[in-house]
Amino acid sequence: MKSVLENDKDVIEDGKLIADAFNQGMGGFMPDMMFERFVDNYSLAKKLFGERFIRRLTGYDPKYVEKNIKVPEFQRELKERINEKIDQLKDKGFLDKDEQVTEKGIEAASLVLYMEELDKLVPAGQLGEKLHVKPDRHGTKQDVKQYSRDARYRDISVKKSIRTAVRRGHGTLIMDDLKVHNRQSKGEIEVIYALDSSASMKGDKINAAKKAGIALAFKAIEEKDKVGVIVFGEDVKSTLSPTYEFDMILKEITQIRVTGQTDVALTIKKAIGMFGEGETTKHLILLTDALPTVGEEPEKETLSAVSLADAHGITVSVVGLNLDKEGKKLAEKISAIGKGRLFIAKNLKELDKIVLEDYYNL
Fold this sequence. Notes:
The chain is α/β, with parallel strands linked by helices. The protein has helices at about 1-5, 10-25, 30-40, 40-50, 50-60, 60-70, 70-90, 105-120, 160-165, 205-220, 245-255, 265-270, 300-310, 325-335, 350-360, and strands at about 135-145, 180-185, 190-195, 225-230, 235-245, 280-290, 315-320, 340-345. The radius of gyration is 25 Å and the shape is elongated.
């Protein structure tokens, strides 16, 4: 699919257009409504749709549209272009007859996000091997330690042992010279990525958060760990229990749309029931840009939910996007009670690296 996309620039642009629509809170394309918004109040339309979406939908630079939007001849041409683009998306099967995004359209947008994220991380070396800190007789070889009677002979490091004997001036190897390899297990890990889709996340924030989730899913599943997704705003919008199915996660993340307020407490409680049974490492990553705003006592309810997660053996980390002073205080309490980590992201470009860092520390 990647080779197909790389050789079809139109499909790539269409995928980006659909991804932009989701990021701006749209699930479909309504050409007449869009055109009316442009003509009636272009400044408001630019905030509503975003400049990237306008450029890909119309083929014009947003500043050019703003300069000429009151010219009747340009309005006619603009309307024709919008309708032409919608018809093209329908012909490709990306939109249905009601201008709603189809499964094929979601796939195109998903693949574009996937390509963009991996093309960024792989050359930067951000997808190295992750190892669990739990020791395991059958894990991979790491650094060496002193030989003990419970160690296996096959784990003896001959080179390190001989080097130690030579350094000590011994003519033959003795027990005290023997060094053995540590072995580490990757363990069994389940991670749930809880993504804030409240209205304040619109645009670049939600786009960066989606790509961070894609990076997490790709790396974790590669390491044989399961990943789940919760999309939350004023309520829980959608859930996907921890799974190895990368394409399911990719599509779930891609079609996230922004709306409403923020209910963190409900999200944490929902996550508790999504983790599997058994002795696995269970970890929740909360990504948000604001304090919880739903409930009679949202802060108190949130911390109570974190305590409940802790009682179920679930650790909770918080990735905050430009949190204010009060938001940071609450995030610190959440990560402390949840025995997780707190990351304050000031640069959206670093968001994927932050999420991966949290995963690598499990």
